[in-house]
Records
---
Amino acid sequence: MDNQPVKIELSNKPKTEIVDMETKENINDRDNINNNSNNKRKIIIIIIIIIVIIIIAFIFILLFAILKVHKDKKIPIIIDVDEGGDDMIAYTIANNSQKYDILGITTMSPEYYVDKVADIWLKFLKYMDFDAKFYIGEDHPLVRQTSPAVFSHNYGIEFPNTTKTAESKNAVDFMYDTIKNSNKKVTLFLLAPLTNFAKVIQRDKTIIKNIKEIIIMGGCKKEGNMEMNPHAEYNIYSDAEAANIVFNCGANIKVLGTDVTHKVEFTNEIFEKYRTMNTKSSNLTYFAMKGNYETWGDYYLHDPVTVLYHLNNNIIKFKKYYANVNTTNPDVNGTNYGTIDFVLPINDIKSNIEYSESIDLEEYWKTFDKYIKKY
Ligand SMILES: [Ca+2]
């Protein structure tokens, strides 16, 4: 037997170094694993952030789309007013219904106090917290030199002062440009003498192709409200020439006159209901009725019937007529100026308006309450 000792070859490297190297490799491996794990975590976090951003963006786009559809569903309208408390109630009902995209409020007022009308409307809008643009228009009728207008600012409410001013654009220019450029047909509520819109028609009759409907408070068959001509109603009597231009413009026109507004009786029970209902709109209604009574001796609120009818078609029944407004002797009291001849459309006579023939008072009050209670 060869007794030579077994030769053990030892590595040149010291043992500790080998261990250190192994440890380093392990650490490197672990670091790599950790780094990989961290990278994966970062990627996951980035993916989650991207997904959250996409979800938020999607929600915003969806909300925007819903709001746009909601706005598109609204009916674009312009309301032409004077200083009456009933004009303000009509506006309030339109606003409270949330069914309209109110493009602007316009006014004309004869007797040269159009600025006063703008002032009281801006204060009213502030009192009600309504956000609307107000445009001042014509300050005298088309032809006549005098007018029956009386500024009766008895609202029973002290409207607050406001720094808000009327828009610089003239009401006629605003009406014309807005209707012409609207991508949806515009509905007009005309609650005052018809001078502003008559001026629009005089400028360009083709504008009516972009009008859906014109709803006018004015006129009467029998019972008017003018001392100078008991068969005439104020809005038509104030500018009969303008009324004829508007009636014959070819648009779809509904006219609601005093024959129906005088049927709306305000009993003590109704008066008390609005006194105690305790909404801003009911306060306005109560004080407008009270103001009317103290100034004119009646509670009539003429203008709200236009918006109420538009919100609930069951309130008014109409009949088609060819309506011609008498324009002779514009500045002579006691003549037929401002009286409407209603002719039934037969043979060659074509109707130019639909006139209010009857009113359903139960539907009227139901609809009135619905929108006055809201706010
Ligand atoms: Ca009015």
---
Amino acid sequence: MNDWKGFDFKTTNEAEGRDRVHEFLDKLLSELKATPGEILKAAKKKVQNPHCPVGGCRTKQPHIADATVMSVVHRFTGPDKCLRWVHASLCELRDSIAQDHEHQRYMCLITRLRQVEEVYFRTLYVLFLAPTDAIPHVLSGDPPNSFSGIYDEVNETILEGRGVLKGSGIGFGGFSPMDILNAGAHADYKTMQTVVWLHEASERPFDIEGYKKHINNYIIRIDHLRGLLEAGRDLDTAKQCIINMHTPIEEFSKLARKEP
Ligand SMILES: [Zn+2]
């Protein structure tokens, strides 16, 4: 079958076209001396990086060979699991955003919004969902480490699908909140347009108190987890605790009504 690249699939008859495709595949498989299952298996087999278990990671050395990553990993083994750092980071971001709002530095303000979510969700991921041997990779920040993928996993397991960042049609037009966060983090032209609109509406500046409360809720939850872990509670207990903290009170009421 040396001329397989020139195999003629063209036909106006659908059944005939299907037969020609099957004929082509049969010839190809016999030439490769492989079954369709073996071909699929070979296609799915990923080349494993010897330094890291995370698929697609291109590190050329173990992540902990980097002194900064090694320091973070070492810190992560401590009783607070880096949560004092996370707490301090969220407080700084909150205060910085509030100051930007006060001085109408809206570009700075919008570029911060994803950082708040990223710090919080990445923390829940590395604490409760990342496989142990993948933790150096996650802490390194090396790709693949996308916020979107991490958010999906945390949303499914910790928020039990109630997360709103990827929803649409709730006052955001065709954009999800995640789209807006990403646009802001990239400081793109749509973000500049938003900044212009915010300045044009400066005679009635938007209320930041609700947003500060949102960050404060993250801070309270992180601080609670830190308290549990520092007191010696295990990660499973802390995980159930954060799931409960993300469960609306109405859900508990429903469960209570179902109990005999
Ligand atoms: Zn890696």
